[in-house]
Amino acid sequence: MCPRLGPRVLRAAASVHPWLPLLLPECRTMAQARQELRWLTEQFGVRSAKLHRACALRSRHVPLQYILGSQPFGDLDIKCRKDVLIPRWETEEWAMRLTEAMKEVLGGEKKHTRPWKVTDLCTGTGCIPLTILNETRETLKDPGLDIGAIDISPNAIQLTQENYKHNFPRDVRNPGNLQTPDNTQPPSSINFNIQKLDILDSSQVTKYTDKHLGVINILTCNPPYIPMQDFIKDVRSSVRVYEPKLALVADLEFYENLVEVWIGQRLIESFVYELGNIEQAEYVQKNVPPNWNVGVRYDSDQRPRCVYGYDSTAPHNYKHLFEIFAS
Ligand SMILES: C[S@@+](CC[C@H](N)C(=O)[O-])C[C@H]1O[C@@H](n2cnc3c(N)ncnc32)[C@H](O)[C@@H]1O
Q: Span 289-315, mean pLDDT?
């Protein structure tokens, strides 16, 4: 938390810039407040009415990314908007590691003839599947990539489409009726589909998988995973007030759905799910069939961050892929 803001600190801030004091309550330090002011002035100018409004919104704890309208994620510029969760560094860290492992292992599997099929559930801004597309499309262009992005929220679906267009304006096949600005044809081996779906409704999942035939090689998901009591007790008020509860609050539902539907109906060969607590990983570990190997990846803060697993009878070298991923 921010130290108490005495008049001396506020005067010192005001001597740097008249609106810097507005940024102090949300920032932990003066250095952080000055950094934010730099980002905001880059976007809105030095003393504009827009800058004043942006600083006033920050003083009411509106997240910086909703004010700036975007957030870097790997090499991508991900647009952010109210009602869709802002991507977090923890997710970026594992998603980038997964793409490194995919390039190293799947890129070497020359026998594979169909495009690699990767599906991201609970996609939000689309940051995970768009990063996979960006990082691996060169290495995996032969035999190709078939990437799916799924969310229940129409706002998330709309934003994923915008992020896809924004980051890949020219060279990727259009989902639905998106138009590339210059009508160039994307490489035919690359496909990116965006779909609105409630993954906890098994009849909707069955309809989707009947339409998109073929086993999914890698299923990724950053589901809502904060139990309600922790949401009330531990989550910062700026997150509680401004970010969508639909994106945050749940407990075991999405891990049960992984085990019962995606693994139980043999729809996937491997998965990576982000975690809120180790009990969620233990649930998956205890309930997968015996031919599944399951592990936990820790983030750079040494917190358990992902549960991952693969079918040991599947014909690809997932063992090596997940050894790299977990390291
Ligand atoms: C924690 S956010 C993750 C967003 C994004 N993948 C990321 O990492 O920034 C969870 C997402 O799950 C979506 N969601 C919640 N319930 C869902 C359901 N039953 N089916 C599909 N998506 C759901 C929410 O709309 C939200 O976008």
A: 97
